[in-house]
Amino acid sequence: MWSGDPNAALVREAADLEPGTALDLGCGEGGDAVWLASRGWRVTATDISRVALERAAAHAKQAGVADRIDWQQHDLGASFPEGSFDLVSAHFLHSPGDMPREKILRFAAGAVAPGGVLLIVGHAGFPSWEPEPHPAVHLPTPQEVLESLELPEGQWEVQRCEEYEREQTAPDGRPGTRLDNILRVRRTA
Length: 189
Description:
5 helices
């Protein structure tokens, strides 16, 4: 069940940014997009799921910010939103299927306007309640994410590149933890 809350990392990292234009990649049911719009951002929010986008639009309408969000359906490996943005945000853009994550994140970097921020948050480890994670699944370190972006030298400032542990509830309701990572870079040119 969707909580309606934005990702905690987005709240921490974007609360001090001056509102402008934002691109929310893999927006799901819209918690991040609605939070950004409520803070004055004009948001383009994308997801592969039409159902998720319909639910997100309904949540935005209930929150009174529907006019600040452009909902777009994209399979980000095949199509990508046009334009440049002051904030490009990708949270937990992981898929068990064949998704070209590194390619998508390079497109995301290309969509950041000069002076803008790229924020990538992902899983760095499996949940504490999963004793035998799938050996074929690789969860990249923040440094691996940074290197995969292939950012031109002298045009980006790394503001945060780190792992952190957060609390997460197991499917059976027990408390647990998960290791995630965060990369925040600002385009300087």
